[in-house]
């Protein structure tokens, strides 16, 4: 169970998103990828790859030019997932100059986030595209590194047994970091990753809600359903099961 989350840090601007890559994120580093130049001139690269197991990431340096790291991985499907929604990722990160080469890669995959330290050979600092952090739109972007499967942060499906299965991307978050709070109209979730990595500027906080119309059997109150949830590899999985039929309903 997550400890108390301090929500006083979260600004609210009506009509604006904190992060256009995830409509549920309200605080902390944003973007599908983040690149920083460290004090020793190495590069820190963070890439959100929710659903990919910690031991299932693949990466290699371009053998020809040695300026780019290729990375890829596949999401682990779980019960209730649509086959077409299961994701495969593939992308690149690297140097933005012609004067240096990548000499080493330290990589760690944890809770749906790939973090890499790219060491580079001698040479003057290159130019790096860090991106524009200004938020002036409300549209949520598709994941640019998904080559197969769903590109959005949320999906729901109903299986033949009448259960609803919902998936929410919360990269960097584990099951111990999440509150799930159902009421008669919706279930809310609040999450904060307590483990902040060395080169991350802060934690990330996610807040959202799913209306009962998305996950509730017709005519049955939401709180009469059995609601089970877990988080693995940066994805919150919720199963909403209708109550069993009694003899009078048969």
TrEMBL record:
Gene3D superfamilies named among the record's database cross-references: 2.60.40.790
Bilayer-spanning residue ranges: none
Superkingdom, taxonomy of origin: Eukaryota
Protein name (database record): SHSP domain-containing protein
